[in-house]
Each structure stands twice: as C-alpha cells, then as structure tokens.
Amino acid sequence: MKHHFFWLLAGMILFTLSVKAEQPSHEKVLEQLDQVITQKALYRAERERTLLQLKQQLHYATTEKEKYNLSNELFNLYLHYQADSALHYINKKAEYALLLNKPELNNEIIINRAEVMGVMGMYSEALDELQQIRPALLSKKNLIYYYFTLRTCYGWLADYTVGREAKQKYLQQTDLYRDSIMNNIDSCVDRNIVQAERYILSSQPDKAIPMLNQMLTTSLDMKQKAYVNYTLSLAYEAKNETDMQIYYLAQTAIIDLSMPVREYASLQKLARIIYRHGDLKRAYSYLSCSMEDAVACNARLRFAEVTEFYPIIDHAYSQKEAQEKRMVVILLVGMGVLAILLIILALYLYYGLKKLSVMRKNLYLSNKELQAANMNLAQTGKIKEVYIARYLDRCVSYLDKLEQYRRSLEKLAMASRIDDLFKAIRSEQFLRDERKNFYNEFDKSFLELFPNFIADFNNLLTDEGKIYPKPGEILNTELRIFALIRLGVTDANRIAHFLGYSLATVYNYRSKIRNRAKGNKDNFEQTVMEL
Q1: Dihedral in degrees, nearest 10, Cα atoms 153, 158, 161, 162
Q2: What is the torsional sign of CA 141, 146, 151, 156?
Q3: Label partner for 407 (CA 20 to 30 A): which of 216, 269, 500, 527?
Q4: Distances (CA, A) of 442 to 340, 379, 387
C-alpha cells in the first residue's frame, strides 16, 4: 500500500512539473519586454526614417495616382503612431482623389477619417462620418473595413462609458457589427480572430485557444500576430489563468513596441495585472511608457485609461521609494556605526601588527646579519684554506729556487768566475720572474674563488669605462687592485707594498676607476667588497 502511495505521489509531482515546463515562463517574456522598452527609441528612429523616405517620395511623385498611394501608405503608418499626422494624410488623399476624378474613393476616405477619429477619441464625430456611408454601394473590401471600423468605435465607446445601460447598448452594437463581419468575410486570419472573440464572449475560451495557437504556427504579419496574442490573453483572462494572460499580453506589447505603434491596450493592461502581483517597479515603468506613447499619438481613450490608474501606481511607487529611502538611511546609519567599530578594530589590529612587524623586522635583520656573518666566515675560511695551501706551496717552491740560486752562485765562486758572479748578484731578472710568477699564482687563486669577478666588476662601470685583461693576462693592474679590495685589503700602503707600486700610483688607479662607476661613486669600493 505504501509503495502504491509513493508511486502515485511521484507521478503527480512529475505530471505537475511537466505541465509547468510546457507553460511559457512569463518572467522570461517580461525580461524581453523590459529590453524592448529600453530600445524603444531605436524602433521609433527606424519608423521615422521610413516615414521620411515616403515623404520624400511623395514630394518627388509626378502622378496623382502615385501621390494618392503614397499618402495612403503614410496614413496607415501614422494611424496608430501619430493620429494628427494620419488625419493630415487623409486630407491629402481627399485632394488627390478629387484630382483623379474617382468618386468611389470617397467612401474609403470617409472610413479612414472615422478610423483616425476613433483613435483620437472623437467617437461621435467618427460615427457621424460613418453615417454618410451607404453600405449597399461599397465594395466587399470596403464593406468589411466599414464594419470593422464600426465594431471598433462601438467597442471603444463601451470601454469609455461608465453607465451600465449605455455600456450594454454599445456592447450590443459591437456584437451586431461583429456578426456583420462574420457574414461578409471569407475564411482568413481576420475571420478566425473574430470567431475566437465570439467564443470568448460566449464563455467558450477553450474553443478559441486551440484555434488561435494554430494561427500562430502560420505565416502572419506583425499586426496579425499582435491581434492573435492579444485575443489569446483575453481567452486566458476568461479562464482566470493569470500567468498565461501575462505571457500573451507581454508578447503583444513586444510586438506593439517593435512595429512600432503608440496606440495600444496591451502594456497598460499588463501594468495593472503586474501591479496586483506586487511588481511596482515594472508596473510603474509600463504605465509611464504607455502614457508617453498615448500623449505622443493623441490617443484619447488610451490616455484616459492610463490616467485613471496612473495615480494609484504612482502613489504606491512613491511610497515604496520613500520606504526604500528610509531603509537606505537605516542601512547607512548601521553601516556607519559598523564602519566606526571596524575602524577601531582596524586601528587596534594596526598597532598590534605594527609591533609584530617591528619584531619581525628586527628578527629578519638579525637573521640577515647572522647569515652575512656565516657567509663571511665561510668565505673567509675558504680564502684562508686556499691561500694557506698556496702560501705553503709557494714557500716550498721559493726555498727550492733559493737553493738552486745559491748553488749556481757557489759554482761561479768555485770556478773563480768573479765577473759572472758579480753580474748574477747585480741582476734583477730573478726577482722580476719571481714577482711575475707570484702575481700569476695570485690571479689564478683569486679567480678560482671569484670566477665571475671580472663580469660583475664591469657591471658596476660605464660602457666606456669597462676593463678587460689583455691577451695572455689573467688580471691587469686595475683589476688586481680591486681584487685586493674585494679580499678586504683596503689600505693603500698595503696594496702598494703588495704590488710593488708607489702610494701615489695606487691612489691614481683607484680614483680613475671610481670615476667610471655608474652609481654612487662614494660607495663604489664598498659595493666591490660585496661582489
């Protein structure tokens, strides 16, 4: 039993989800509508360009027939866009019809004038115009147009009238002319829309919905799509399915604003429903857009519809904005208090971190000094090891050479070669050779300890002041002086004694090289010691 109940519940949930998935999401279509409203100026600019092109064509038209047709196009484009201009081009049509000498065109012009008067809210004047018509003399096309205009005018009067009896009378007239349309129109999109309206008014919306949905799958122009979507919204309104009503009203509004037209019912009707759902921001935006368009079009009924409801939404929107401002003030005060607390905490942390930073810095400097001392000790130890070994080798080698030199002198003395003996004693060649060998040994030992010394030393000098040994040399005099400085021998007397130069010579070399330094010349030798 429990298993059966579980599967039944799961099936119901899946069915509900599938039904919801099949239904259009009105939130998504409302987002599309919001986007279209933001781009309204672009659609209007495109319509204005089209109107300007037609006006230019009318200006350069040469025949009365061409002028009449262009005026008719301009009338149709202005009809639900700017009623005053539409009326102007009806008068133009009347002028050209008179010149064409075609009396049959007068009926079409009268219906045109009645239609635009209806848009402007001049319903009595529109009906007076239509009373001039003799239906029996109309062509089938104009007869259907005549009945459509009468149905629309009486429908607007019913919407605009408050009194119950008068309203009912106008609704009956609307139904009467709807029947006249059905009796005269062939099977087409307009007939199906009228038939769907009849189903809705006779409380049979379920018959109208499939018919209208099927029509949406066929090839329709923008105006027909708008009518079909709006009629679908009426069908779902009759069924009390608000989500679907919102969806199709939004679709209608998107088409209306995209065509674009300024006389429409979809957007303000949608604003009322959205307001009841609590979306004040959208309702205010939609109603503001509708009011702007109704004023621009001079559509009296639409303006009356908007102004009837606009104060309610405006008041609610103003209250919401005031409440939001109060909330913002409260939030700002709260954030201010929180900010002060955070500043206090930040200062406390700052001083704590500052102390910690000082401690870390001191510890870092101590570690660095310790590392430097360790490195110096290691390097000093390495230097000592190398140079002690070299020194011992050099001492043994020098003793051997002195022994050899002594024996050579002894041989000269034993052979009584006194002149050769004095000549050998007076010669400095032995000392020069030994000094040269000593420097070679020093250079080799130094470069074993500091193999990159020459390159690193030259990086401290300007391009024109760089120093390189000549072919056959390991280090030259300048490099050898600064090699001694790198080893910590900075005393000029010791350097002069080591190299066998005068103190002035060593000083001149050091000054000359220091003047070639790239950076701070005063710290040059200290920088060399750190290479």
Answers
A1: -170
A2: positive
A3: 500
A4: 70, 17, 9
Better pLDDT: 12 or 122: 122
Residues 523 and 361: their CA atoms lie apart, in Å, by 25
Q: Are 257 and 240 in contact (CB under 8 A)?
A: no
pLDDT-derived band at 322, boundaries 50, 70, 90: low
User: In 3-state terms, what secondary structure has residue 461?
Assistant: strand
Write down the pLDDT at residue 5: 43
Residue 466, Ramachandran bin (φ over 0: left; ψ between -120 and 50: alpha; else beta): beta
Closest listed residue to residue 76, CA positions, set 107, 54, 105: 54
3-state secondary structure 59-74: HHCCCHHHHHHHHHHH
Lookup result for tokens 């062939």: 186
CA-wise closest residue to 94 among 123, 61, 118, 71: 71
Write the Ramachandran bin of 240: left for phi over 0, alpha for psi from -120 to 50, otherwise beta.
left
- What would the DSSP string read from start to end of 193-256? HHHHHHHHHTT-HHHHHHHHHHHHTS---HHHHHHHHHHHHHHHHHTT-HHHHHHHHHHHHHHH
Of 487, 480, 386, 497, nearest in space to 440 by CA: 480
The answer to whether the CB of 409 falls within 8 A of the CB of 346 is no
- 208-230: b or e for each residue (b if 16 or more CB lie within 10 Å)? bbebbeebeeeeeeeebbbbbbb
| pLDDT for position 295 | 87
338-356 CB burial, b ≥16 within 10 A, e <16: eeeeeeeeeeeeeeeeeee
Average pLDDT for the chain? 83
Enter the tokens of residue 1. Answer: 């039993």
Q: What is the dihedral of CA 132, 134, 137, 142, to 10 degrees?
A: 70
User: DSSP 3-state assignment of 517?
Assistant: strand
Sign of the dihedral through C-alpha 298, 302, 308, 311: negative
* Secondary structure (H, E, C), 350-369: HHHHHHHHHHHHHHHHHHHH
DSSP 471: T
Separation of CA 168 from chain center:
56
DSSP 407: H
SS3 49: helix
Distance CA 196, CA 201 (A): 9
What is the mean predicted confidence (pLDDT) over 219-236?
92
In sign, the C-alpha dihedral spanning 389, 393, 398, 399 is positive
Tell me whether the omega of the peptide bond preceding residue 260 falls within 30 degrees of 0, making it cis: yes
